[in-house]
Amino acid sequence: MADMIGFDVVSPEKLLLSEDVDMVVIPAEEGDMGIMAGHAPVIANVRPGTIAVFSGNSVEKRLFVAGGFLEVTEGRCTILAEQAIPVGDIDVSDAQSQVKDLSEDVSHAKDEREKEAAEAALVIAQARLQAVEAPAYK
């Protein structure tokens, strides 16, 4: 399996995924990172977004992550996610409602600290909604 890389996604609740994959595309803070077998070792922050797991040239699975850390070592890619969920498990109307509610929270914030907290939650909610409505990789 020299052309595959081990891939694990771990959330605080459980090990969400552990399998050998052809490639994964991960939403790192610096931009999307494609990870394949033979990738150089790296540690990076993960921003809210969608992980695309590839089998051959097509996306086999999509997982939403709210943020976390990525580590690539020889033969393995591990994500320690703040929150992770299969994109198929996201309720679209709930995600839309969260974006609307958090947008209102930002505009009605009483102080800067409250506004920053609402903005951070809004970024995650918007990324969750985008994961369902407009996946980046087909």
For the largest beta sheet, what order do the strands appear in spatially?
A: 2-1-9-8-5
Share in helix = 25-40%
How many angstroms does the end-to-end distance come to? 25 Å
Instruction: Supply the CATH architecture of the largest domain.
Output: Sandwich
What fraction strand?
Answer: 35-45%
Number of helices: 2
Mean pLDDT figure? 93
From the alpha carbons, calculate the radius of gyration and give it in angstroms. Answer: 16 Å
What's the number of extended β-strand segments? Answer: 10
Which segments are poorly predicted (pLDDT under 50) over 5 or more consecutive residues?
Answer: none
Quickly name the level 1 CATH class of the largest domain. Mainly Beta
Largest sheet: 5 strands, mixed
Describe the structure.
By secondary structure, this protein is an alpha+beta fold. It folds into two domains: 5-87, ATP Synthase, domain 1 (Sandwich), CATH 2.60.15; 91-133. The protein is 28% helix and 43% strand. It has two helices and ten strands, in the order ββββββββββαα. The strands form two sheets. Strands 2-1-9-8-5 form a five-stranded mixed sheet, with no helix packed on it. A five-stranded antiparallel sheet has the order 4-3-6-7-10. β6 and β7 (58-65) form a beta hairpin. α1 packs antiparallel against α2. The two termini are 25 Å apart. The mean pLDDT is 93.
Structure characteristics:
single chain, 138 residues, alpha+beta, ATP Synthase, domain 1, 2 domains, five-stranded mixed sheet, five-stranded antiparallel sheet, 2 helices, 28% helix
